[in-house]
């Protein structure tokens, strides 16, 4: 499958916009995002969430992860699947988890079978994104990692809530959407939460 026309250029513009944010703007976004998440019972009552370590100007989840570690909410991080092409695994993450750097130069927990957590074990998955629209569509970095990993869980009513985490400047009027794109149930930015899941 090839990508839709225009998505490459859109990714480039939106990635430049988020990388242009100053350290002070990034810091403020990170703390406001943590505040927004703490207003959601799906977060405060979660037993386990999946987060990510920020890369390429993505919103930092440092404050969110610290809050979880203080509140008995277990945290997983994505790891590139060692066997299944362009899929992710989610591994348990603590302050003392041994880390390694993957081929995208992103830190991830070192692979250990006992640390693997199934998708169904999470209440909430926080997903980075490059672009989003007011319908909950998500444009990622173009690898299809989240799309492939979540494809078989899309229609499972017991699956985790899928939350796109974004800077305000990542919103576009309308994204070109491909059939394989897994949409967000909610999108959280520093100043607004969009709810698309009718159960929320
Ligand atoms: N469920 C799937 N099965 C097979 N191929 C897929 C699937 N989902 C996505 N792909 C492939 O992955 C490629 C990248 O997808 P896409 O451009 O939507 O990535 P993305 O959403 O930007 O990335 P990510 O999911 O990593 O955030 C597509 O060209 C598509 O062919
Ligand atoms: Mg996609």
From TrEMBL:
<keyword id="KW-0436">Ligase</keyword>
<keyword id="KW-0460">Magnesium</keyword>
<protein>
    <recommendedName>
        <fullName>5-formyltetrahydrofolate cyclo-ligase</fullName>
        <ecNumber>6.3.3.2</ecNumber>
    </recommendedName>
</protein>
<dbReference type="GO" id="GO:0030272">
    <property type="term" value="F:5-formyltetrahydrofolate cyclo-ligase activity"/>
</dbReference>
<dbReference type="InterPro" id="IPR002698">
    <property type="entry name" value="FTHF_cligase"/>
</dbReference>
<dbReference type="InterPro" id="IPR024185">
    <property type="entry name" value="FTHF_cligase-like_sf"/>
</dbReference>
<keyword id="KW-0067">ATP-binding</keyword>
<dbReference type="InterPro" id="IPR037171">
    <property type="entry name" value="NagB/RpiA_transferase-like"/>
</dbReference>
<dbReference type="Pfam" id="PF01812">
    <property type="entry name" value="5-FTHF_cyc-lig"/>
</dbReference>
<keyword id="KW-0547">Nucleotide-binding</keyword>
<keyword id="KW-0479">Metal-binding</keyword>
<comment type="similarity">
    <text>Belongs to the 5-formyltetrahydrofolate cyclo-ligase family.</text>
</comment>
């Amino acid at each position: 499958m090839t990508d839709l026309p225009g998505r490459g250029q859109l990714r480039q513009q939106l990635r430049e916009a988020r990388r242009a944010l100053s350290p002070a703007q990034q810091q403020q976004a990170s703390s406001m995002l943590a505040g927004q998440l703490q207003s959601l019972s799906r977060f405060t009552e979660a037993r386990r969430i999946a987060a990510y370590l920020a890369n390429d100007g993505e919103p930092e989840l440092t404050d969110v992860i610290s809050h979880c570690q203080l509140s008995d909410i277990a945290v997983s991080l994505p790891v590139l699947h060692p066997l299944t092409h362009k899929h992710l695994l989610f591994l348990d993450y603590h302050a003392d988890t041994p880390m390694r750097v993957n081929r995208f130069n992103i830190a991830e927990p070192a692979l250990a079978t006992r640390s693997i957590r199934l998708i169904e074990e999470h209440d909430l998955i926080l997903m980075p994104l490059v672009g989003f629209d007011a319908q909950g569509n998500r444009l990622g970095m173009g690898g299809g990692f989240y799309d492939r990993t979540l494809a078989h869980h899309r229609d499972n009513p017991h699956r985790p809530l899928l939350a796109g985490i974004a800077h305000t400047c990542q919103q576009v009027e309308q994204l070109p959407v491909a059939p394989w794109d897994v949409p967000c149930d909610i999108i959280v930015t520093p100043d607004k939460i969009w709810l698309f899941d009718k159960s929320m």
